[in-house]
Design brief:
The complex is a heterodimer of chains A (about 725) and B (about 240). Chain A is of the alpha/beta class and about 725 residues long. Chain A has 23 helices and 28 strands. Chain B is α+β, with helices and mostly antiparallel strands. Chain B is built from six helices and ten strands; from the N terminus they run βααββββαββααβαββ. Chain B is globular and about 50 Å long.
């Protein structure tokens, strides 16, 4: 290699290379005794990008600057100049982020620059699950995958399994083409973060396809049942923006929030009233409130409700649902009265913690909006904004993937980590045929793979996707603007190459083709297609017009599956603000970000109520053993002042067997105790509750808190 | 509330902005997006598990939370706490080498290469928002690529704290100068402010009565943290409405 040529700027794909770092606004040698404010800022470019951390798909902008890194080629070390992403912010033109970003969104940078990223393709050398690999060339790796795939396609394409994220994107469209060409079944979600219960409830209660959009910013009273919309549910940035507006964005009008959840989540923090519903009894609570609305608050909208809706609520025994949910009849009456009296109420139905009957519970909660006449009304609940691309039509379902996993001849794992989120998947992965992972890391699931073909980081790729929830029809679409750091390959390109090798060629769907299709479909004669595509890519995607009000379609609630109230200590897992369903754990910024409730860093605690803690004789940091019929874990206690007596909660995030230096072997995975159960209608992974026993443990561990003080002994004098 | 005498640049005769921040606690959700946004913008090093356990984690901005009452009638009071950029800053007079001082725009400036690491400033700060670098920070390759070249990486032995994103103020001024215009309200957005999903934070010139921050300060819900200490902070909190 020519050394002089090697030291070059890795150019940006659009907008020209970042050059002139020593130009006008340049890095200068900082003279002694100069304060920070006098440092000259460097040259920067901002490129539209898309956050890939959760399905919200926030439009972002990435700050790109010149940087230098050391690389090794053939044993020699070189300094290579690169165009490096330095900072992520929200894209102000994006209808979801509106220019804002959450903690996890910022920390996406530490996925890109994570020291544990794979530098190239790997082949397993140890036992499955052990996590021992050796490098392999791309050519050889693709040959091996192609050979396995050709065999499966020829013998039984039904035994090809593709596990992926439930996102509607250019990637999912490419995957669909790939599987179709093979005659294989559609891709499957592993049932985590897919909001399947929300989608199912939306279909039953409103006749809509997709996740409803709640116009909380224009409402006067929000009742949230199970939706921690300020924490991590569906689209936290969008709903935080809307929440801010609801509180202080309107002159003379401040909206109120009542939040029902079995945990004192971020949304409960901010509520005017928290209804601490017993875990798994969200359905009972929704039925109780609906019953009061129907029987005690005659209104035109109640009168207009269908017989089925009325019958669902009329037959409810208020005493029974009150006892089951732990919410008094009085509190239900007060909530129903507040809803009936509010000028613009809305009921947000969500399953931040998925239960076995979540689809039913959410259907009942959605139906409260029907009773209140809030469907399609300003400040009420709106239908999902179809993007017009059709990308969202093929959201992968979760049902039955575990059974197919054990029998599969070849399994592709793309962007999901079932061995972490569904503990029994590890056993099935041991028995499955060839396992191919596209993970950029050796994570819990990739540790079982025969081959790891690492994808580029999301920030290194051009992509188009439809956000899970958007106020207007929208497609986020960006081109790549920095070169990949390592010898990774875009999974879309790998699928195209493999399909080609086995004689079943496909074309990848790229952002330009998604936008081109959209242009064609809109029949827009005003602009030429290429110019349209260019302009949308420059802005980070296409956004349509806000649609008008739209009422419900067919309502068919169906029958509900009530969960019997269980006694004893109940344990539940939840997706945290820092780590989501677990993927954030390998980012040091998020590990050191104090947990909002417990202030814990570098670990997650078992949250126990003060009464239970006193009986056990444990205090903050005491180690406990939590045991259920499914399994056990040991972790430090946090005596949570707001935990429901008898309810034990723990955040997802830690307890990774494999996930790099910051996450591997740290803490415990609550799913080991929750076990593997599924939401009845959708196959979504259930987060509890399960009955557990707690006992003090002799094992070593600690609770590191930024603030050990839960109570303000010297109240702030503001 | 602090009264600001109008200051003018002796050379240009232009009015010197008086930077201040207002945080609306009725909008703030406690999500900590600001915490990570700040670490990303300002090269705030991660302490790691062992050092964090020794109380050495650095958060230029944090969210204090205190529970009040007992279940089920329990509430949580919380607020983001960052350097309050006090007009009468307790950290300043105790520094033996003048490494920290208040500049004409009201920022409590920290000159890293003047600091000799006595930690008196941190000891004297009632808000506990000053941090000491016990070690020179290191980033596992290639995490160093995340570093913002506009912000110094502070070496071991030096105190550090929130700067109100002085580098962003500088950039906004240069951009305005290039465009031959004066700084406009909203041109400067510290990383925490631009990140805040609930749009709870407002930053601007409190010397300009028409600025958003001035209006927020005058909203009637505004107060300062530990105001009775006489520190005259430039961070104003708009209390919750209930």
């Amino acid at each position: 290699m020519d050394r002089r040529n090697f030291v070059k700027l890795v150019g940006t794909a659009s907008g020209g290379a970042v050059t002139g770092a020593c130009g006008k606004k340049s890095e200068q040698i900082i003279p002694l005794l100069v304060s920070e404010e006098e440092i000259e800022p460097g040259v920067e470019q901002w490129h539209p990008s898309i956050c890939g951390d959760c399905g919200a798909g926030c439009g972002t902008t990435a700050r790109v600057m010149a940087a230098e890194r050391e690389i090794e080629v053939d044993g020699e070390r070189f300094r290579q100049q690169v165009a490096a992403i330095k900072k992520l912010e929200g894209n102000p033109a994006d209808p979801v982020s509106g220019g804002r970003l959450c903690a996890r969104g910022h920390a996406a940078l530490q996925s890109l620059y994570n020291p544990d990223r794979l530098r190239g393709p790997m082949k397993r050398v140890g036992e499955r699950g052990e996590g021992r690999f050796e490098p392999i060339s791309w050519e050889r790796a693709l040959e091996e995958v192609s050979e396995s795939l050709a065999r499966s396609a020829a013998s039984d394409p039904g035994k090809i399994l593709y596990l992926t994220r439930p996102q509607a994107s250019s990637r999912s469209a490419t995957v669909a083409r790939f599987l179709e060409s093979l005659g294989a079944p559609p891709a499957r979600s592993v049932g985590t973060g897919d909001f399947a219960a929300e989608i199912e409830a939306s279909r039953r209660a409103f006749g809509w396809a997709g996740i409803p959009v709640y116009e909380i910013q224009d409402s006067t009273l929000v009742l949230s049942i199970g939706a921690d919309f300020l924490g991590g549910w569906v689209s936290p940035v969008l709903y935080s923006r809307r929440y801010g507006h609801m509180r202080q964005g309107r002159s003379e009008l401040r909206g109120r929030l009542i939040h029902a959840e079995s945990r004192f989540s971020l949304t409960a923090w901010n509520a005017n009233r928290w209804l601490p519903v017993w875990p798994g009894q969200e359905l009972a609570l929704a039925l109780g409130i609906g019953h009061v609305l129907v029987s005690e608050h005659a209104s035109p909208s109640v009168a207009e409700a269908s017989e089925e809706v009325l019958a669902t609520f009329e037959s409810v025994d208020l005493l029974q649902v009150s006892e089951a949910s732990g919410i008094s009849i009085e509190a239900m009456r007060e909530t129903a009265a507040a809803l009936a009296q509010a000028t613009a109420p809305v009921v947000v139905a969500g399953a931040s913690m998925v239960r076995e009957n979540s689809a039913d519970a959410l259907t009942a909660a959605c139906a409260l909006n029907v009773l209140l006449g809030r469907v399609g009304e300003p400040g009420g609940v709106m239908p999902p904004a179809a993007s017009g691309t059709g990308l969202e039509d093929a959201r992968p379902a979760a049902q039955g993937w575990e059974a197919r996993l054990a029998e599969a001849e070849i399994v592709f794992v793309d962007g999901v980590n079932p061995a972490y989120n569904a503990p029994s998947a590890g056993t099935a992965l041991t028995e499955a045929g060839t396992v191919v992972s596209f993970s950029p890391f050796v994570d819990d699931t990739a540790a079982y793979a025969d081959l790891i073909l690492p994808d580029h980081d999301a920030l290194e790729k051009g992509r188009a996707l439809v956000p899970d929830v958007s106020p207007v029809p929208a497609v986020s679409a960006v081109e790549s603007f920095v070169s990949p750091l390592y010898d990774t390959r875009s999974t879309e390109d790998v699928l195209v190459a493999v399909a080609e090798a086995i004689g079943k060629p496909i074309e990848a769907m790229d952002p330009a083709s998604v936008l081109g299709g959209l242009h064609q479909q809109m029949g827009s004669a005003a602009t030429e297609q290429a110019a349209f595509v260019r302009e949308q890519l420059r802005q980070g995607g296409w956004r349509g017009e806000r649609r008008g009000s739209q009422g419900a379609g067919q309502t068919a609630l169906g029958s509900f599956r009530e969960a019997g109230k269980r006694g004893g200590l109940q344990f539940q897992a939840y997706a945290s603000v820092q780590f989501g369903e677990g993927a954030g754990a390998n980012r040091p910024w998020l590990q050191e970000m104090p947990d909002p409730g417990s202030s814990a860093m570098w670990g997650t605690a078992v949250e126990v109520d003060p009464g239970t803690a006193a009986v056990l004789g444990v205090t903050n940091g005491s180690m406990v053993r939590v045991e259920s019929a499914s399994g056990s874990l040991e972790a430090p206690v946090y005596v949570h002042p707001a935990a429901i007596p008898g309810v034990v909660s723990m955040a997802l995030g830690q307890g990774h067997a494999n996930y790099g230096r910051y996450a591997s072997g740290r803490g415990a995975n609550p799913m080991a105790v929750v076990g593997d159960s599924r939401e009845a209608a959708t196959g979504a992974i259930v987060h509890g509750p399960v009955e557990v026993t707690l006992a003090m443990s002799e094992s070593r561990g600690r609770l590191i808190q930024l603030s050990r003080q839960d109570r303000d002994e010297a109240p702030h004098r503001v | 509330m602090a009264e600001q005498a109008e200051q003018r640049d002796p050379r240009s005769e232009q009015r010197v902005p008086q930077w201040a921040m207002a945080i609306d606690l009725d909008r703030c959700t406690g999500c900590e997006a600001c915490v990570v946004a700040c670490a990303s913008e300002n090269n705030v090093p991660t302490a790691g598990e062992e050092e964090a356990a020794r109380g050495r984690a650095k958060h230029w901005i944090r969210v204090d939370r205190y529970y009040e009452g007992e279940f089920p009638d329990i509430r949580v009071k919380f607020r983001p706490v960052l350097c309050q950029q006090c007009d009468s800053a307790p950290c300043e007079p105790v520094c033996p080498v003048y490494a920290t001082y208040q500049n004409a725009e009201g920022l409590n400036v920290q000159v890293y290469n003047r600091c000799i690491g006595t930690r008196y400033c941190a000891a004297n700060c009632p808000y506990t928002v000053r941090f000491f670098n016990w070690f020179t920070p290191e980033w596992a390759e290639p995490l160093g690529l995340q570093l913002n070249p506009d912000v110094s990486v502070r070496p071991g032995g030096v105190a550090e704290k929130c700067t109100f994103c002085a580098q962003r103020i500088k950039r906004a001024k240069l951009d305005a100068a290039e465009e031959e215009r004066e700084l406009a309200d909203g041109d400067v957005q510290p990383a925490c402010v631009s990140s805040c999903p609930a749009e709870a934070m407002v930053f601007g010139d409190m010397g300009d009565g028409d600025s958003k921050v001035s209006k927020a300060i005058a909203s009637g819900r505004s107060g300062q943290l530990l105001a009775d200490l006489g520190t005259r902070p430039r961070v104003f909190y708009l209390e919750k409405a209930d």
